[in-house]
Fold:
Amino acid sequence: MSEVHSNHPPKSPAQIRTVDVVVVGGGITGKACALGLAQLGLQTLEIAPDLGQSVSSPQGAQWGQRIYAFSPSTQKLLAHLHIWDAIDHSRLQAVRDMRIYGDRGEKNDQLHLSAFEAGTPQLAWIGEANLIEHTIDQASRFQNKLERINDVVEKIQVDADGSTLYLKNGGGIRAQLVIAADGANSPIRNELGINASEESYSQSAVVANWLCEYPHLETAFQWFLPGGDIVAMLPLPGKQVSMVWSTSPEQAADLLKLDQAQWVDQFSSIANGAIAKQLGALTLNSVPAALPLRKIRAKRFIGPDSSPKVVLIGDAAHVMHPLAGQGLNLGLRDVAVLLNILGKRESFRTPSDLVLLRRYERQRQGDTSALLWLTDKLKKLFSASSSTERQLRNWGLGLVNKSHFIKQRLIERALGEIDFE
Ligand SMILES: Cc1cc2nc3c(=O)[nH]c(=O)nc-3n(C[C@H](O)[C@H](O)[C@H](O)COP(=O)(O)OP(=O)(O)OC[C@H]3O[C@@H](n4cnc5c(N)ncnc54)[C@H](O)[C@@H]3O)c2cc1C
Structure:
């Protein structure tokens, strides 16, 4: 979008509509944010090219390709938006235990996190992205302060009073505040010149769903493998697991070509056969897909400096390695914090008041930096090949496993803290 200007930029003010807030982006973060803003009573417009049709409810034994771990902070936000209870809970699997294994294959190189020990009912839920999107779509239909447009933002102009957005189909929108939920490549972030640090992990994640022979015992498993690969098996309802295998792009391309029998060979050989031992025979239950992995952090979460009338949320602000299953959860905490700040703003402040936007940015920096740092360091520690680092990381897993205090802090971070006042 940065250099693309609309073929039909609106010329006359009559063509430009005015609303309080525009949310750009139709992913889960954008949808949840738009619904929440409308619930606050703000006239909200959501714009994305994928808003044409409501996402249909997932059905049947074939599970969606995009499977996520949802943290308790996400559950709290969805409950606050009045949609948690409307979700089809038969398609959500609670995670009560997490078992993480080091890459030496030794018995003590493992970390066990337990909901029971931590005094919490569950550590997370695993479910399909379209399950959540469908439920948000349903709720959005009944929200009269929310309008959705199936379009693409081609250009944004920010001035002292707000922003004007020019759309591909020719219209224009004027808003006090623009929320950029337009994903990792965020055209808005780029056009406004908000710098972002970006690093490729030179890895892709191969995702697939498997029917498993043995019950998964409501446990999320993760194996760090020699050479830097990471295999996670996340429990789904019934005897089914969702795999996220982070590996080199070349190996990912090879994995996508495997047939069922070749996959079985893979599972019997990797992690000393631990995957097959834990879950029994695995039968492929989806078409595997590969996604490139990278780390991105925007330098500012509001912008531009001259007149910050724009807020970045979700992947537009930060992207991380999926090893902790936290990217979307972090984005939804952006939403929760923004809704909290706008919901309790003083009556004399407009939604784009600089004090509010700076408050948002300050509150999101700590959580974002800590999670990006932790996932990045873990990823790099387990990719390092020297024998010292190898010993250190495996010894570290065992050591953390013995410390109730550290485990409790790790679980607190994974649960994610948000409060609605
Ligand atoms: C393999 C893998 C596994 C993962 N697992 C987990 C997990 O278990 N738990 C977790 O919390 N996270 C997980 N994540 C992270 C998660 O996928 C992302 O953080 C999340 O999908 C980002 O959502 P978003 O709404 O911010 O962006 P997106 O979903 O990318 O949405 C961006 C939206 O912006 C729209 N858009 C873009 N440009 C424009 C424009 N010019 N005009 C209008 N609209 C525009 C797009 O059409 C789209 O609708 C995982 C990621 C990967 C790769």
Remarks:
- Residues 1-7 have pLDDT under 50 and may be disordered.
- The chain has two domains: 13-53+133-198+294-383, 67-129+201-292+393-415.
